[in-house]
């Protein structure tokens, strides 16, 4: 009896060892033969007949047949359980996001927190929520986990640079499961990319982007859940848009949407104080629309207002996120450029001048601008003098024939 028991234990141990070795070999071979193996048990399920044949060939005994049957049952059960596990994770994530939405009005980190909840279900590496600014038709990143995510950032669409702008314009999601070589444009390595618009009652509100450095990291289930996520955060995004609109009305010019003169003067004093403390340069551009009175006389005041609105949009698209674009009065604009040297400001001013000169205005009307530039600390050390020097440089640009840029430093040298 003892010998029979010993033999049974021995056979069981050998069978277990054979099963372990065989299963390891199967997994290794599957990883080689089936690249999608690591993506989930659903992929493995498609190859169960192959697994079954391989196990039978490797073990080829009654013990092997028994292990084979149990293995198939376990694998099939794991595949059956996968949708339920996914559904449970999605429900947990949606509950967490819904709870967070309830406190979104008082939580400045709300969008970062919900992006983390999203990560629990959609395993992305980098993600960004963009808010649509209807005033300038641009997308603004408001929350980023990891690095800011977008594709083809050098390509400009109607709503800005990058594939997100295309998604916003078309109001259609994009799922790219495998980029051949991956993309890395001064950002994260992207081999998988998912972009979903946030649309409320037909209005574009924002865009949600997620990416992963590995190919085939996202599937249709991920796309479906990110669309649910976009719906869940739509209300807080709409609230943010409304809040910004209220704030903007108090500090922005009603016609053009850029900052008004009062806000510019307040920001100028603050930025000058900041520049003094950190020993940083600061530049100011004064912009005037050439022959604007004649333009109004010829085409009418309504056409003149449209031209000012169009110029404002060009200024905002040209400017950096740190620049402060304001309407100073009439057809005059000012652009405050923190941490910008005199030379950098002059080059930027020339780029702006050329953009206006070549811009396609309504009914193909030609519009040009003149610019005056002054810098702290070289040209002035206080706000009043800096504005006066930039205005003086602008006056000389107009006197010299318009459609040009003049730097105050050049006047001082001569």
Describe this structure as you would to a colleague.
- With 414 residues, the protein is of the alpha+beta class.
- The chain folds into 3 domains: 84 residues, no CATH class; 140 residues, 2-Layer Sandwich (Beta-Lactamase), CATH 3.30.450; 162 residues, Alpha-Beta Plaits (2-Layer Sandwich), CATH 3.30.70.
- The chain is built from 14 helices and 12 strands.
- The strands form 3 sheets. A 5-stranded antiparallel β-sheet has the order 2-1-7-6-5, with helices on both faces. A 5-stranded mixed β-sheet has the order 9-10-8-11-12, sandwiched between helices.
- The N terminus is likely disordered.
Name the descriptors.
5-stranded mixed beta sheet; 14 helices; 3 domains; Alpha-Beta Plaits; 414 residues; Beta-Lactamase; 5-stranded antiparallel beta sheet; elongated; alpha+beta
Give the % helix.
40-55%
Q: Main β-sheet: number of strands, strand sense, barrel status?
A: 5 strands, antiparallel
Query: In angstroms, what separates the terminal alpha carbons?
Result: 115 Å
CATH superfamily of the largest domain: Reverse transcriptase/Diguanylate cyclase domain
Q: Overall pLDDT, averaged? A: 80
SSE topology string? HHHHHEEEEHEEEHHHEHHEEHEHEH
**CATH class of the largest domain, please?**
Alpha Beta
Specify the structural class: alpha+beta
**Overall shape:** elongated
Can you count the helices? 14
Radius of gyration: 31 Å
| Spans where pLDDT lies below 50 across 5 or more residues | 1-21, 23-64
Beta-strand content bin: 15-25%
CATH topology description of the largest domain: Alpha-Beta Plaits
| Secondary structure: number of strands | 12
């Amino acid at each position: 009896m003892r010998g029979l028991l010993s033999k049974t234990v021995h056979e069981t141990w050998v069978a277990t060892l054979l099963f372990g070795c065989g299963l390891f070999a199967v997994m290794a071979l599957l990883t080689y033969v089936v690249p999608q193996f690591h993506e989930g048990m659903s992929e493995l399920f498609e190859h169960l007949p192959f697994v079954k044949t391989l196990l039978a060939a490797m073990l080829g005994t009654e013990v092997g047949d028994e292990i084979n049957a149990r293995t198939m049952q376990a694998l099939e059960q794991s595949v059956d359980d996968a949708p339920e596990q996914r559904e449970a994770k999605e429900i947990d994530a949606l509950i967490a996001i819904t709870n967070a939405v309830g406190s979104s009005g008082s939580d400045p980190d709300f969008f970062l927190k919900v992006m983390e909840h999203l990560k629990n279900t959609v395993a992305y590496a980098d993600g960004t929520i963009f808010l649509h600014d209807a005033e300038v038709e641009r997308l603004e990143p408001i929350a980023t986990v990891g690095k800011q995510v977008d594709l083809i950032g050098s390509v400009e669409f109607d709503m800005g640079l990058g594939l997100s702008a295309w998604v916003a314009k078309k109001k259609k999601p994009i799922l790219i499961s495998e980029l051949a070589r991956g993309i890395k444009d001064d950002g994260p390595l992207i081999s998988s990319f998912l972009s979903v618009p946030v649309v409320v009652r037909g209005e574009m509100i924002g865009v949600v982007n997620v990416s992963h450095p590995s190919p085939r990291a996202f599937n249709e289930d991920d796309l479906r859940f990110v669309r649910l996520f976009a719906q869940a955060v739509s209300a807080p995004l709409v609230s943010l848009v409304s809040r910004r609109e209220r704030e903007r009305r108090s500090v922005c010019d009603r016609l053009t949407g850029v900052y008004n003169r009062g806000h510019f003067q307040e920001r100028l004093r603050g930025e000058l104080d900041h520049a003094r403390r950190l020993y940083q340069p600061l530049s100011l551009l004064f912009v005037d629309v050439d022959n604007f009175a004649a333009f109004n006389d010829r085409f009418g005041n309504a056409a003149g207002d449209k031209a000012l609105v169009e110029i404002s949009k060009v200024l905002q698209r040209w400017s950096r996120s740190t620049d402060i674009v304001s309407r100073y009065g009439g057809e005059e604009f000012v652009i405050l450029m923190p941490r910008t040297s005199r030379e950098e400001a002059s080059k930027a001013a020339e780029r702006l001048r050329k953009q206006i000169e070549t811009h396609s205005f309504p009914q193909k009307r030609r519009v040009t601008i003149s610019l005056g530039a002054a810098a702290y600390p070289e040209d002035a050390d206080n706000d009043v003098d800096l504005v006066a020097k930039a205005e003086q440089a602008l006056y000389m640009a107009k006197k010299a024939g318009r459609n040009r840029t003049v730097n105050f430093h050049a006047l001082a040298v001569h």
